[in-house]
Write a structure and sequence with these properties.
By secondary structure, the chain is mainly α. It is built from one helix and no strands. The radius of gyration is 30 Å and the shape is rod-shaped.
């Protein structure tokens, strides 16, 4: 009877090891997705700054043209 419990415990230990490996892999994927989302939001922020800079540049040019015309 003890041999049966030992076999069951060994199988459970192997299952625990497999679950730990799966958890590690999922954690790696989760970190990768978080990094991609961060980069994507950073790109959106840069786009907003570019649009703002262009708008300010156009405003300055229009003011200069109006003054010297």
């Amino acid at each position: 009877m003890k041999d049966g419990f030992d076999q069951i415990n060994q199988r459970l230990d192997r299952m625990d090891d497999r679950l730990n490996e799966m958890n590690t892999r999922l954690h790696t994927v989760e970190n990768g997705i978080s990094e991609l989302k961060g980069r994507q939001s950073g790109v959106a922020g840069v786009r907003n700054w570019i649009v703002t800079a262009c708008a300010i540049g156009a405003l300055i040019i229009s003011i200069v043209v109006t003054i010297f015309k």
